[in-house]
Design a protein that fits this description.
Low-confidence stretches: none
Number of helices: 10
Distance between the termini: 43 Å
Strand content: 15-25%
Strand order of the largest sheet: 7-6-5-10-8-11-9
CATH superfamily of the largest domain: SPOUT methyltransferase, trefoil knot domain
CATH architecture of the largest domain: 3-Layer(aba) Sandwich
CATH topology of the largest domain: Alpha/beta knot
């Protein structure tokens, strides 16, 4: 079951594990084509399967068959083949948000663990939407969904079209761009949340592009001397907690 086949030819995604599949059963953004479950867990997971009744077939198989299908020993006991819902344009997504809102804009974040962690934090702190540039990996990649604990299935997201000025796009929609960088001029503790806040995060190492930093309010998270940066997913959690307060 190769990821590129599922995504490229089928236009779908794989959700795995009890917690994530429960989220898939509740989300309004995506559908489901079928489920595969270890036969010895059918009875215990009857309540999990209930939301899918009438929506998709459920296949039960032995552990050996599941391992052969997946390509490696899988211990979570349940997989769902999800169907991607329609992805709105970045402009339309922003236009439909409430007057008081928080969005995340991600630039060049290609690590699935980081994107999954960011979506987990976004779901936990009530982020209204996530925008991703072309350098970011797919939030519905199997590992990203798993790390997000299903958050990638519940938080609306859109791609920023190539060549579009992301900061200008956000500003035109009434959002105040807040760029996180170790050299930021405003310490996070002093930041007063704008009614429409856009938190901008870049890849670890390179950080945000210079043109993005130039046209945004730069924000830093002070830390102990001799250490100048945090993991980008950790950064998102700290900033979102501050804004949620």
């Amino acid at each position: 079951m190769r990821e590129r086949d599922v995504v490229g030819r089928e236009g779908g995604f794989i959700a795995e594990g009890e917690v994530v599949v429960r989220v898939l059963g509740r989300t309004r953004f995506h559908g489901v084509r079928s489920l595969l479950i270890a036969e010895n867990r059918v009875g215990a997971l009857a309540d999990l399967l209930s939301p899918f009744r009438g929506r998709a077939p459920v296949y039960a198989a032995s552990q050996a068959v599941m391992d052969a299908i997946v390509g490696f020993p899988i211990h979570r006991g349940i997989l769902a083949f999800g169907e991607r819902g329609p992805t709105p344009s970045a402009t339309d997504l922003l236009a439909g948000l409430p007057q008081r809102a928080v969005v995340l804009a991600l630039f060049g974040i290609s690590n699935h663990d980081n994107v999954g962690g960011i979506f987990r934090n976004a779901a936990a702190f009530g982020v209204d939407a996530v925008l991703l540039d072309g350098g970011c990996c797919d939030p519905l990649y199997r590992k990203a969904i798993r790390v997000s604990v299903g958050g990638a299935l519940t938080v609306p997201f859109a791609r920023i079209d190539p060549g579009v000025d992301a900061v200008a796009l956000l500003s035109a929609a009434g959002f105040s761009p807040l760029a996180l960088t170790p050299s930021g001029h405003t310490p996070l503790a002093q930041l007063v949340r704008p009614s429409r806040s856009a938190v901008l995060l870049g890849a670890e190492g390179h950080g945000l592009p210079a043109d993005v930093l130039e046209h945004a309010l730069t924000v830093s998270i002070p830390m102990a001397g001799g250490f100048d940066s945090l993991n980008v997913a950790v950064t998102s959690g700290i900033v979102l907690h501050h804004l949620a307060r």
